[in-house]
């Protein structure tokens, strides 16, 4: 065992997960190492005598070393401490699966998942953010047992083209465009307003679309259609004015990309190359976007993962979308329902916050790093994998590398199947 092994072991492997911390901790390791070198002089065995080999007489020195480190190492790596404290506040949903299972006992679990960064890894080209076949199978298995919704900033068509599972609810464009599973019943006109106890509300125009298409459940962003319609009536090209202006303004910035996510003019401005992700380039770009938006007071700007998102400034977000799906499932006033939301981005915080406010449900943040969050639990990024034993093959257990989100979904499915082995059909949607 090397000096650094001792240090990392003491750090519970966290340093390995934290590139920044690793750098900081190497300093700590160095400090420990030099204190060990001084060890002999302090009456402890010198590290050369001790580390990696039993001392004279066969006595292992590792415990001496660890004790020496503990006693003489006044400073732990702050980043590691911070990560450990964060993990105590937001423990791993896998490590705490038993607690989650206790909370779910006797309740109807409803699953909500974000797409980018949760089910699919973040990649530079948004058009190539595919989910793996294994992840798709895991989501499908979950959807067979629990009502399941995808809540995403992407437009419905795009996310559906990636996921392709007709049994899910999809809340696209940050929940501004919600569709039920193909088997769900269309809602009677007026249902949504009744469910939300809404008379004319700023975020629901009197003529918004509701239940008049078999699968579209709600499009609150249609409030903005008159604005766009007016423009389109005057000049069709003007409907795309904001989109065009953004494309135009940002075309000189290498790596910048404007995406059209439907509701409405568009939505994401992304820096696709590592070299342009610097503050010096990012800030002027953000200024350009803000300048364009001054002409569009009905749109607002928010920031996601390396992305500037533009949305209608209406009171609607992923939290509202989750509430809407729960209501449309008939679960609104029920205490025997447990919504579980897994997401990675700032916009998912609206959903975590909503669950916290309801005092019902479990938020799980997917993240590599400690982050301010309203989620209760955490899971690792989809690019981070861990070994898991999946199945017996050729008389031995097969050890596979799978992302923790997928592993969590597997555990949920196993848990449900263990509890009700006959539960293989999709849950009935009311
Ligand atoms: O709500 P989400 O499902 O998380 O979607 C929000 C945005 O996700 C996409 O951008 C993110 O993923 C891209 C592909 O991995 C990545 O290139 C980008 O940096 C991320 O921010 C999507 O492109 C946006 O349109 C969505 O708004």
UniProtKB/TrEMBL annotation:
One Gene Ontology MF term: trehalose-phosphatase activity
Catalytic activity: alpha,alpha-trehalose 6-phosphate + H2O = alpha,alpha-trehalose + phosphate
UniProt cross-references to Pfam families, sorted A to Z: Trehalose_PPase
Residues making up the signal peptide according to the UniProt record: none
UniProt cofactor(s): a divalent metal cation
Biological source species: Eleusine coracana subsp. coracana
GO biological process: trehalose biosynthetic process
Superkingdom field: Eukaryota
Phylogenetic classification of the source organism: Eukaryota, Viridiplantae, Streptophyta, Embryophyta, Tracheophyta
Protein name per its UniProtKB record: Trehalose-phosphatase
Name of the gene this protein is made from: gb17453
Keywords: Hydrolase
InterPro entries, sorted: HAD-like_sf (IPR036412), HAD_sf (IPR023214), OTSB-like (IPR044651), Trehalose_PPase (IPR003337)
Record flagged with keyword Hydrolase: yes
């Amino acid at each position: 065992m090397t000096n650094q092994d001792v240090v990392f072991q003491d750090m519970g492997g966290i340093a390995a997960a934290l590139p920044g911390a690793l750098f900081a901790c190497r300093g700590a390791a160095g400090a420990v190492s030099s204190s060990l070198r001084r060890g002999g002089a302090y009456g402890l065995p010198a590290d050369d005598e001790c580390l990696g080999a039993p001392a004279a007489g066969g006595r292992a020195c590792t415990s001496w070393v660890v004790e020496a480190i503990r006693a003489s190492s006044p400073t732990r790596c702050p980043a590691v401490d911070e990560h450990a404290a964060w993990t105590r506040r937001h423990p791993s949903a896998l490590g705490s699966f038993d607690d989650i299972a206790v909370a779910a006992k006797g309740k109807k679990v409803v699953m909500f998942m974000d797409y980018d960064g949760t089910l699919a890894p973040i990649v530079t080209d948004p058009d190539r953010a595919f989910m793996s076949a294994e992840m798709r199978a895991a989501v499908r298995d979950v959807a067979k047992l629990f009502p399941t919704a995808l809540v995403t900033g992407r437009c419905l068509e795009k996310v559906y083209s990636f996921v392709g599972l007709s049994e899910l609810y999809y809340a696209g464009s940050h929940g501004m465009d919600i569709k039920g599973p193909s088997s769900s019943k269309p809602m009677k006109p007026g249902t949504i307003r009744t469910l939300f106890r809404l008379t004319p509300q700023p975020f629901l125009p009197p003529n918004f679309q509701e239940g008049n298409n078999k699968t579209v459940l709600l499009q609150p962003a249609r409030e903005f259609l008159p604005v766009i319609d007016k423009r389109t009536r005057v000049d069709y090209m003007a409907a795309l004015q904001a989109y065009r202006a953004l494309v135009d303004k940002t075309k000189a910035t290498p790596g910048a990309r404007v995406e059209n996510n439907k509701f409405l003019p568009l939505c994401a401005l992304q820096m696709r190359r590592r070299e342009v992700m610097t503050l010096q380039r990012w800030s002027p770009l953000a200024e350009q976007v803000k300048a364009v938006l001054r002409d569009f007071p009905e749109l607002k700007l928010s920031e996601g993962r390396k992305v500037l998102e533009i949305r209608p400034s209406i009171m609607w977000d992923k939290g509202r979308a989750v509430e809407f799906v729960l209501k449309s499932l008939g679960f609104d006033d029920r205490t025997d329902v447990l919504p579980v939301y897994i997401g990675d981005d700032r916009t998912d915080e609206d959903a975590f916050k909503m669950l916290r406010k309801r005092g019902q449900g479990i938020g799980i943040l997917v993240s590599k790093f400690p982050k301010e969050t309203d989620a209760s639990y955490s899971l690792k990024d989809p690019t981070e994998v861990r070994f898991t034993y999946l199945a017996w093959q050729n008389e031995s257990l097969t050890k596979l590398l799978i992302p923790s989100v997928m592993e969590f979904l597997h555990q949920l499915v196993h848990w449900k199947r263990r509890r009700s082995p006959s539960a293989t059909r999709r849950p009935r949607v009311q």
